[in-house]
Amino acid sequence: MWLDLQDVARYFGTRKAVDGLSLRLERGSIGCLLGPSGCGKTTALRCIAGFEPVTAGSISAHGRILADADRFVPPELRRIGMVFQDYALFPHLNAADNVAFGLHRLSASDRVRRATQMLEAVGLADYHTHYPHQLSGGQQQRVALARALAPEPELILLDEPFSSLDVELRERLSIEVREILKSLNATALLVTHDQQEAFAMADAIGVMKDGRLEQWDTPYELYHRPATRFVADFVGQGVFLGGQVIEHGAVQTEVGVMRIDGNGAWKAGDRVDLLLRPDDVIHDDASTLRAEVCQRAFRGAEFLYTLRMSGGARLLSLVPSHHNHQIGEMIGIRIEPDHVVAFARDE
User: Fold this and answer.
1) Are 11 and 55 in contact (CB under 8 A)?
2) Which of 94, 124, 215, 263 could covalently link to 119 via disulfide, CB atoms 3.0 to 4.6 Å apart?
3) What separation in angstroms does the CA of 343 have from each of 261, 262, 274?
4) What distance separates the 2 farthest-apart alpha carbons in the chain?
5) Backbone angles phi, psi at 224, to 5 degrees
6) pLDDT tens digits along 112-121
7) Is 235 helix (H, G, I), strand (E, B) or coil?
8) What's the per-residue H, E or C state across 244-271?
9) What order do you get walking across the sheet with 314-320 strand by strand?
């Protein structure tokens, strides 16, 4: 196991910034801690980097204990590379010198060779002599990544690496950075509040709330099989449809009887909320199940419709944009979910 956290806690007085965090990350994998501001994800990253001591628990990397109740390896000895939110490039150094800055143990010629290799790896082979102010935000972030990778660390940490970039560049760069890390077989952990960024980059994602890890899983499982109501609400779009359990695995709802995945020991009579994603609700003119369009958001190739059933339930549906329905119009729908997860009714 390349990175292993066991019951890690970090308290500030009585406030539990991180509370019992456990996760494992394989070599060559990219992990992500995802959650809203203040959930503890950046504090967890700082504990791994060695910028914060742990109050309890242990952190190990490549089988070596970095921090526990008895030991604390200082940051400079952890063999961990860090990519900061604001890039932290030296304005008076060009790209090559920024990358080579931390390679003090190498000869001058080896520093130049390593910086050249890293700039080529991140697609900036022609930018050796450019200074930070001559580079775009995306190029500066790639220089920062090259600098973190240059000393051949065992682990790369990325702290909200794309938050200062515009949406289009952020999406493109997250894919590019993933490809770079994968090509180098690097092990990495990033923190972000942006789920699209997390989905684009990570092999495994941990959703955090109030210092605790709600679920550590693949992006697919987080989206389709969220373990808690918070994860279901935080990851992706969706609505909760109320219903009542009529028998094992079956729930009566306003849109008919639905079969649920085997989460929870539900019994007949239990009132539950079912998670439905927009891609679970299919537009179908031939269907006898009708819903009223009450909101719509145009997204180019598709509309996101907010629909209201006759009994008051609301659903979301993604519909190809050539189906241009107006607010107040009744349309036919059918419900075709791959997975239906139930949660206790939120009264």
Assistant:
1) yes
2) 124
3) 11, 11, 6
4) 76
5) -95, -25
6) 999 999 999 9
7) coil
8) EEEECCEEEECCEEEECCCCCCCCCCCE
9) 281-283, 330-335, 290-298, 302-308, 314-320
